[in-house]
């Protein structure tokens, strides 16, 4: 029994029963499946950018695209961008309190450094230089190149100039690990500060939080939107601030949903939020989806002349987009969680293996899909069609490579 766990022995019986009720929960298989689905979505988005969708990425293959495909991709990307990463932060927040409860402050911090900082450094030191070297030697259409177009020289020559050229600590997908590590450390600090005022077992941290009303959830969504609008006076959406590679314009949502995840764990909200209440938020999500085309048209998304006012500043377009994003994020998180809870709370062997491998896939997928795209770059076809053909192979290859890497003893410790 750890020192932290030994605090249970001094608890009164009613508090001990509450603690046991909160801690003894079955594994939420639908959360594992949902996390797998979101990470597959991340792979597909990055592959779509490779094949013509306009966003920040490492490699772009020039060529013709289908306008219908582009319009559909823009809609799907707009929806996904509004909630998917926030959903991952909420899930991470949900599992943060029990990890802290089990390990105590010091053990929790050490565990988070091991689980987040080591994969982050593994990617930054080993994988990222290899991916960028492959792109810069190949040249591509030169948009993704760190150099004028094509690097001439060996990998060791490249490493001598690589750190100064890149200037980012969280390039690619690992900015998420970097941000989650920061959130986790702040959570640990907050728990320490609260513990000075109340014992770890008798204080408010152990008391189940009541399920919020729909009105409270709506105020929460509006607050996310309004604070996001204010933050975008200084930080622009779609711009990544180096060297952290953080898109601070969306961090209001990420912080809020991470915090909501910790509250959801204490109140067991994922189990107690009824399907009847979910119906209300399905209508909110549908309304937000119907509004999205108007925002895309207003921002020039279909004409190709992007109106930068939607991304920052004091104007109606930024205000509308920010508030829309707040309600879209909250409503879609509720709807998607409830849908997976109802339909995907079971796993076969393949789904279990994929959920066990998904973290590794998230970390290494650029080192799979970028070389794959470079290898197939000589095949000329419409980029939209190429995406449809390559996508299933890319996803399967990511999981196969990640599974193989996790069989290596040292790498399994790094990649989860």
Question: What is this structure, in a nutshell?
Answer:
The protein has 15 helices and no strands. The two termini are 25 Å apart.
Key phrases:
0% strand, 416 residues, disordered N terminus, mainly alpha
Outline type: globular
Q: Order of helices and strands, N to C?
A: HHHHHHHHHHHHHHH
Unreliable segments of 5+ consecutive residues: 1-22, 140-148, 199-204
What is the multimeric organization of the chains shown?
single chain
What is the number of beta strands? Answer: 0
Largest sheet report? none
Provide the β-strand percentage band.
under 5%
Number of helices: 15
Mean pLDDT: 85
Please identify the structural class as seen in this structure.
Answer: mainly alpha
Spatial separation of the terminal alpha carbons: 25 Å
Taking Cα atoms only, what radius of gyration do you get, to the nearest Å?
22 Å
Helix content: 55-70%
SSE arrangement:
Elements: H1 13-23, H2 29-50, H3 67-94, H4 96-138, H5 155-166, H6 175-195, H7 214-231, H8 251-267, H9 269-272, H10 275-298, H11 316-343, H12 349-364, H13 366-375, H14 383-406, H15 409-415
Helix pairs in contact: 2-3, 2-11, 2-12, 2-13, 2-14, 3-8, 3-11, 4-6, 4-13, 7-8, 7-11, 10-11, 12-14
